[in-house]
Structure to design on (225 residues):
């Protein structure tokens, strides 16, 4: 158990509304990641963080923003949700130390945009 | 972006059979990871590989880091019903902390 929780676990929202997903970790790891999972695409990186207030874009960052004001929390915001953002969103943490780059995933948030 | 080609896309096998899947790329990777995902849950790390040629086992699972550093293989011996799920490979490029994921192999087991 990597001590990662995500909230909410399920959400239905309307097109054009803002949505914020939360990832919380209990183990004080430096690196945190947001992915989306869609059939046939595996997991695609949206944004990641390498420390408080330090974030960078992944391969599918358009339409998303992130914030990390505390080590334990990493927020993903859809500024104006669109139907193409219907997906399952996973948060991950990395226990990066030395040569270890393993990532551990949370339980996911299923988001439906109608 | 970088791509990992994972095959096969799906497998439907008899309980007790061995399973093989692989990931290939045109890029060189420094780390290969294999994950399993059950329905409605997040991926769970099975095996991590860090050196070219490395062969690592975890119970009935064995994974190898290809010599060219552009591929990796996962074998499951004597499959059982609880092996059902989606298996993902992931690679870390030579620099940075980001992973690239394959599209997954769906494994179904007939008991």
């Amino acid at each position: 158990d990597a001590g990662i929780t995500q909230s909410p676990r399920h959400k239905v929202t309307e097109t054009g509304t803002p949505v914020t997903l939360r990832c919380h970790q209990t183990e004080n790891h430096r690196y945190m990641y947001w992915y989306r999972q869609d059939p046939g695409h595996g997991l695609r990186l949206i944004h990641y963080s390498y420390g408080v207030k330090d974030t960078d874009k992944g391969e599918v960052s358009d339409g998303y923003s992130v914030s990390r004001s505390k080590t334990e929390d990493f927020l993903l915001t859809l500024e104006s949700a669109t139907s193409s953002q219907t997906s399952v969103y996973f948060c991950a943490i990395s226990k990066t130390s030395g040569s270890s780059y393993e990532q551990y995933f949370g339980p996911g948030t299923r988001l439906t945009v109608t | 972006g970088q791509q990992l080609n994972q095959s096969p896309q799906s497998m439907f096998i008899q309980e007790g059979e061995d399973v093989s899947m692989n990931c290939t790329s045109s890029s060189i990777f420094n780390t290969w990871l294999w994950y399993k995902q059950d329905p409605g849950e997040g991926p769970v790390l099975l095996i991590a590989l860090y050196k070219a040629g490395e062969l690592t086992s975890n119970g009935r699972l064995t994974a190898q880091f290809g010599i060219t550093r552009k591929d990796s293989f996962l074998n499951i011996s004597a499959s059982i019903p609880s092996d059902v799920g989606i298996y993902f490979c992931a690679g870390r490029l030579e620099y940075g902390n980001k992973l690239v994921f394959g599209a997954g192999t769906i494994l179904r087991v007939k008991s």
Remarks:
- The CA atoms of residues 41 and 95 of chain B lie 29 Å apart.
- Chain B touches chain A through 24 residues (CB under 8 Å).
- Chain B has a mean pLDDT of 94.
- The longest strand of chain B covers residues 29-37.
